[in-house]
Design brief:
- The structure is a single chain.
- By secondary structure, the protein is mainly beta.
- It has three domains: 299 residues, TolB, C-terminal domain (Neuraminidase, 6 Propeller); 71 residues, Immunoglobulins (Immunoglobulin-like, Sandwich), CATH 2.60.40; 88 residues, Immunoglobulin-like (Sandwich).
- Strands 23, 30, 32, 33, 35 and 36 form a six-stranded mixed β-sheet that branches. Strands 10, 11, 12, 13 and 14 form a five-stranded antiparallel β-sheet that branches.
- A hairpin with a 2-residue loop joins strand 17 and strand 18.
- The protein is elongated, with a radius of gyration of 32 Å.
Length: 478
């Protein structure tokens, strides 16, 4: 674990239990692939997505024969840029250099929206004390200007402290919040997540994210996604392995209980430092599942149809009208309807709702109010009521954040179909399979739920498929 001392400030088992969702019953929503620029004997961690590719940290050799080590003999991490063509393995990543590159660790890093300003982790003490092998240096956050593969104009973050660590910065898209990890006094566990706000040109004092996010273990590698999701790594109990990736969202000023990402992003190994593209369909993370720490790319396997029929609600209510009575409303007649389901009503125009599909004989008797003569079955028609031929979503139209809701497809009406699969896309990057599923949402909003049903392969290998969708409104929790 020496190689992670810079990044994972301490490892303390957590006694805070976050329930592990039962992902084993659900299909995997991700595919992962080890990146080709990983070295075979060294570590690559903490990817950051930039315009031209990704920036990452590695303790790989400075040259083919020469290692780069700190004063205490530990290998130094530095920053590298793998541009988009590097992912094919044709070109080696380029080293990002600064005045600190040869004596101190550099990274993890985040890049502001201007593409120039960077925040990165490095050691605080640079004087003679740092050259002593038994000296315990602490990490701080530094700010610099990125130009090509050079970081210049480096200046320290105002809250760096030689008595504890600040590390792994992540900046919100609007630049107003800086998230980081620290083991400063007063936290929940070994290391906690904190943030500062940019107010009147200055960073506010660090705020601990509290027990809703932090645990008695260690929280590290915060990453604020443009969607508002805060991803982070934790070694709390209840995960897949030693280090797992979680995320939380801010709802009505409160951070929701963290959710753990499913396999294969998380595993029985260390999985950490997650980042994603804006659409959340692809991204990167670090893991030691292969041997060393390596960077992996993930891609979403979620199915979402470009075109999907809007759910047609079945209606069993009808209006019955005697046209002649409407035209000649002065005629002395009473109109008595029999709806074929045991119910009756009187009037020239009446409405009636049936209990469900079926075949109903509708009869109209006409009573002459002067002569009292009754014309039975003056009109008689057979009404055939059938459900719309479609997949059908039974579920609420409105729920609150965190409220569980059952979604059911048992009223699907597709005559002649041998349905083999019910696939649900809930519109929030989560899915489920099965006729009946449970769902809750983390954030208010309007979500478009798709239900995709498919059949077994028919003669000739043809698989029939149908899709229907409906909106569900998620309200803030009261």
């Amino acid at each position: 674990m020496v190689k992670k001392v810079l990044y994972i400030i301490s490892v303390v088992l957590s006694i805070l239990l976050i329930p592990l969702q039962n992902f084993a019953q659900q299909p995997s929503v991700y595919e992962v692939k080890r990146m080709s620029f990983n070295s075979n004997y060294f570590s690559e961690i903490s990817p950051v997505i930039v315009k031209d590719g990704i920036i990452f940290c590695s303790d790989r050799r400075f040259s083919g024969l020469k290692d780069r080590t700190a004063f205490d003999g530990h290998r130094l991490y530095n920053l590298y840029l793998a541009d988009k063509k590097d992912t094919s393995g044709r070109v080696s990543p380029k080293e990002i250099k600064s005045e600190r590159s040869y004596l101190f660790n550099n990274g993890p890093l985040c890049v502001a929206s201007d593409g120039k300003t960077v925040y990165f982790t490095s050691e605080i003490e640079t004087g003679n004390a740092a050259k002593k092998k038994n000296f315990r240096n602490h990490n701080g956050i530094f700010i610099g200007d990125l130009s090509g593969t050079d970081i210049t104009s480096i200046r320290p973050f105002k809250y760096n402290n030689p008595l504890y660590n600040l590390a792994q910065p992540s900046l919100s898209k609007d630049g107003k919040r800086l998230f980081f990890t620290s083991d400063m006094p007063g936290g929940q566990g070994g290391s906690d997540l904190y943030y500062c706000e940019f107010i009147d040109g200055e960073w506010s004092f660090p705020v601990n994210m509290g027990p809703e996010v932090n645990s008695s273990g260690s929280e590290n590698y915060p990453y604020m996604h443009p969607s508002g999701r805060l991803y982070f790594t934790s070694n709390r109990s209840g995960g897949f392995g030693r280090l797992d990736v979680y995320f939380t969202v801010l709802n009505n000023g409160k951070w929701e209980d963290p959710f753990i990402l499913p396999e294969p992003i998380n595993s029985k190994y260390d999985d950490f430092a997650f980042v994603a593209e804006e659409d959340l369909q692809t991204g990167y993370f670090s893991s030691n599942r292969h041997r060393n720490d390596d960077i992996y790319r993930f891609s979403s396997t979620i199915i979402r149809k470009t075109y999907c029929d809007t759910l047609v609600e079945n209606s069993y209510c009808y209006r019955f009208l005697e046209e002649n009575a409407v035209k000649f409303d002065t005629m002395p007649f009473r109109y008595e309807w029999k709806f074929g389901d045991g119910e009756k009503a009187s009037g020239a125009m009446v409405e009636h709702c049936y209990s469900g599909p079926g075949k109903y004989l509708v009869q109209l008797d006409v009573v002459n109010l002067i002569t009292k003569e009754v014309l039975y079955n003056e009109r008689s028609d057979t009404l055939l009521i059938a459900d719309a031929e479609q997949p059908y979503i039974t579920g609420p139209d409105r729920i609150e954040v965190g409220q569980g809701a059952e979604m059911n497809a048992d009223k699907t009406n597709l005559p002649g179909w041998k349905i083999s699969s019910y696939y649900w896309n809930f519109g929030d990057e989560t899915i489920a399979v099965g006729m009946k599923v449970d769902k809750s949402y983390l954030k208010p909003g309007t979500y478009n739920v798709q239900l995709i049903v498919s059949t077994e392969a028919e003669p000739g290998g043809v698989v029939r498929e149908a899709c229907v969708c409906k909106n569900i409104v998620v309200l803030p929790k009261h």
